[in-house]
Design goal:
Layout lengths: L1 H15 L5 H12 L16 H7 L34 H6 L15 H18 L7 H26 L31 H13 L17 H14 L3 H14 L6 H6 L30 H8 L1 E2 L1 H4 L7 H4 L2 E2 L16 E3 L17 H14 L3 H12 L16 H15 L5 H9 L9 E5 L11 E5 L12 H6 L12
Antiparallel strand pairs: 1-3, 2-3, 4-5
Length: about 500
């Protein structure tokens, strides 16, 4: 069964990749978008229509498979059979055992880099060509703003995956990623610095966000609340605390919805309460996945939906984020889960017909936590606690859900970091957070992992694995296929190119 699901996953991922030749997208993308958007009068679509470019922004299968970094964190765990014997042979084995001696440069990254830059290429195709198309200027302006927003997001993912976290002291010289501003299939651009990439991302968003619509034609277009939320996230990583606070507040001013998990609990759980499935979750600001689409994400969660014993221990007894969605017993999960490991696994069916959680795309819950952290950084401790408590009131049962206002900035920051771990499961969140927090002595962390727990043997004795805050493993090597095509794409680690 595993092999069948794996084959299906590969097929789904491959299907999600697009060839961006002009004739191909005119023949294929219009057909795929028809079921998601119907704003163009019949007969009005031509190869040079502004509406056609606007529709090209839509990509319901926007996905970022996380195996390059998923297990490089203290939040996730893995089935022992997927790791033992593979400590130097697969990215999962290397990452889970923090194996710095392994050669990561020859490993495949499961199309993560390719997906990011294919999405950027898609955005560039729109931006570079729409002004020459027939149609209204308002549609052109909107389409370019949406494409630039997504282009900024993909560059943000790329720089935080393949380069160091933004450090004001070194960003001007730290190697970053290639900035791609134009549609060019044969381009071999020079690599920009981390500072240059962030400057580009911030400019893209600042110049685009006000042109986004509050309520687009369909959910796969970026809305204004998402634009400000993404800008707040980028400012936060760029350490612009006041700007992060302001942008987060603008985002929440447009959409402050939070699903009350008590409603789900009182209805009998996720199996009975299906009010928030598919596109009905009011918290979701952007739809992006670990695998190709909301149905297929459950397959990825069989592999990367297991939380560590450490993270499991952070959930309070009345935390519905655990009791509604995670489990550590049951015959239906034994194929994917080691009972007795101390870990817990997300119930994959919850991301299918029952509840849209959103692992990669942004939710309002994240914007609350961005606002909390920005206020904490500005030493507005009571305001920071207020944002945390507004979230916790919708996530915990009972009346005792509030945190008290901590006595220091460090205390409230540690509380926020813990809430981020419990709220922003899966995707890239914890990996990116560890990178940026490791720059600060107050919050940096040495991760230790004792493994295996269940299948200890003479062949596989229990060991303690350690990931240092300054480990080069936090910088993922560019895939060799990309380096072969572009000799300017040198690694940002001390590993051999």
């Amino acid at each position: 069964m595993i092999s069948k699901i794996y084959k299906r996953m590969v097929m789904w991922m491959c299907a999600a990749l697009f060839t961006f030749h002009f004739l191909l997208f005119t023949s294929m993308m219009l057909a795929s978008c028809d079921s998601y958007i119907d704003i163009t009068p019949k007969g009005a679509i031509t190869v040079d229509s502004a509406y056609q470019y606007y529709e090209l922004v839509v990509n319901p299968m926007r996905s970022y498979y996380p195996s390059s970094y998923a297990l490089l964190s203290d939040d996730l765990w893995a089935r022992e059979a997927n790791i033992l014997g593979y400590e130097s042979q697969t990215m999962d084995g290397i990452n889970f055992t923090f194996n710095e001696a392994a050669d990561r440069t020859i490993m495949s990254d499961n199309n993560l880099y390719e997906n990011m830059y294919s999405n950027i290429l898609r955005s560039n195709l729109i931006i570079d060509n729409i002004d020459k198309a027939q149609g209204s200027q308002s549609v052109k302006t909107l389409a370019k703003a949406e494409a630039r927003t997504f282009r900024a997001f993909d560059h943000f993912l790329a720089v935080n995956t393949f380069a160091k976290a933004y450090d004001p002291a070194t960003a001007e010289t730290d190697g970053g990623v290639c900035i791609m501003e134009h549609y060019d299939l044969e381009a071999t651009p020079a690599k920009s610095t981390v500072a240059q990439v962030y400057n580009f991302i911030i400019r893209e968003l600042e110049e685009s966000v006000d042109f986004l619509e509050e309520k687009p034609a369909n959910i796969y277009h970026p809305n204004k609340a998402y634009g400000y939320g993404l800008l707040a996230q980028v400012y936060l990583f760029h350490r612009d605390w006041q700007k992060a606070k302001d942008a987060a507040e603008k985002s929440l001013g447009l959409n402050a919805s939070l699903v009350d998990y008590n409603i789900i609990k009182n209805a009998g759980g996720v199996a009975r309460c299906k009010d928030y499935n598919r596109d009905n979750n009011p918290e979701v600001l952007s739809y992006m996945w670990m695998a190709s689409g909301w149905t297929n994400e459950q397959v990825a969660l069989y592999y990367y939906g297991m939380i560590s014993p450490e993270l499991k221990g952070l959930f309070e007894s009345n935390d519905l984020r655990y009791s509604l969605f995670l489990r550590d017993t049951g015959t239906s999960i034994t194929q994917w889960f080691d009972t007795g490991s101390g870990a817990a696994i997300w119930t994959p069916a919850n991301t299918s017909e029952r509840f849209t959680y959103m692992t990669v795309g942004m939710r309002t819950a994240e914007v609350y936590l961005i606002a909390a952290e920005a206020n904490a950084r500005l030493n507005n401790l009571s305001e920071a606690a207020s944002y945390v408590n507004r979230l916790r009131a919708k996530r915990l049962s009972g009346t005792n859900t509030d945190i008290t206002v901590p006595a220091s900035q460090v205390d409230i920051m540690k509380t926020i970091i813990t809430e981020r771990r419990k709220e922003l499961l899966f995707g890239f969140h914890r990996f990116f957070d560890l990178k940026r927090f490791n720059l600060e002595p107050e919050y940096q962390k040495t991760i230790t992992r004792v493994f295996p727990v269940v299948n200890i043997s003479e062949t596989h004795p229990q060991k303690t694995y350690t990931l240092r805050p300054d480990s080069r493993m936090y910088i993922i090597p560019f895939p060799h296929s990309a380096r072969d095509k572009n000799p300017n794409l040198t690694l940002n680690t001390d590993e051999k190119n």
